[in-house]
Specification:
Blueprint lengths: L3 E10 L2 E11 L4 E5 L6 H8 L6 E7 L2 E2 L5 H7 L1 E4 L11 H6 L12 H7 L1 H5 L10 H13 L5 E5 L7 H9 L1 H6 L3 E5 L3 H7 L2 E6 L2 E6 L6 H9 L7
Parallel strand pairs: 3-8, 3-9, 6-7, 7-8
Antiparallel strand pairs: 1-2, 1-4, 4-5, 9-10
Length: about 240
């Protein structure tokens, strides 16, 4: 049984339909990447899964339970957590205070404050600093650490590499090995196609709110992925 199963999902913003019949699965212990251009519907999909958008049709199941109409706070307590685009830290709180907000979810599991500091040693050095004074990469570490302290079964990461230097991106992505080893499944929203393919066992490409490609990224050429990403037929010389 998949950990997350989405079946024929339609999502709306008023009269505008943002997703059209999207279906995907995430298995236990799997990393799945969702790629697509701006406006393809990637963040909309995560918002629908986490209960932040309830204008939807179709079915969302988590660990076999239908959560299609479940409110966001209950979905979080069931073990689904979001690392949002833009980090969304509390600027007036310290690094450690931001991290400890994750424990408000009340879930017990392997992730502790000590574990987050082991994963991101730099955060322990900065624990008393206001979040507003951190670099973009350090803020992203706090956002991921806060999500881990909810002790999720599934972590959804929305554009975590956006605006970061390449070396910082590599450092951020390297943490996912330890996260998966703790039993957490991962969904990555990513515009960097090469990064997305390297990190995942399964990719889904969204184009104008529809799945245009899905499967093991190793089975696709970059031409095929580009065609699905942009909605054009790539011409060969």
């Amino acid at each position: 049984m998949p950990l997350l199963s989405i079946e024929e999902l339609d999502v709306f913003y008023g009269d505008f339909q943002a997703l059209h019949g999207v279906s995907l699965q995430v298995e236990e212990g799997q990393t799945v990447s969702i790629i697509g251009a701006n406006g393809a519907g990637k963040s909309t999909l995560l918002n629908a899964v986490t209960g932040l958008n309830n204008e939807k049709r179709g079915r969302v199941r988590f660990a076999g339970v239908d959560i299609t109409a479940t409110p966001a706070h209950a979905i979080a307590r069931a073990g689904v957590t979001l690392v949002p685009e833009g980090r969304r830290l509390f600027a007036s709180l310290s690094v450690e205070e931001n991290l400890l907000m994750g424990q408000a979810c009340g879930r017990v599991g392997p992730w502790t404050l000590r574990g987050v500091y082991d994963l991101f040693p730099r955060l322990q050095e900065l624990q008393h600093l206001l979040a507003s004074r951190l670099s973009g990469g350090q803020q992203q570490m706090v956002s991921i650490g806060r999500a881990l302290l909810t002790n999720p079964r599934l972590i959804l990461c929305d554009e975590i590499s956006l605006g970061l230097a390449p070396k910082v991106i590599l450092d951020i992505y390297s943490c996912f090995r330890a996260i998966r080893a703790s039993g957490v499944s991962i969904v990555l929203i990513e515009q960097n196609v090469a990064q997305a393919c390297a990190a995942a066992e399964q990719i889904y490409c969204l184009l104008e709110g529809r799945v245009s490609l899905s499967g093991d990224p190793k089975q696709f050429s970059m031409e095929t992925i580009s065609s699905a990403y942009f909605g054009i037929q790539v011409q060969r010389a």
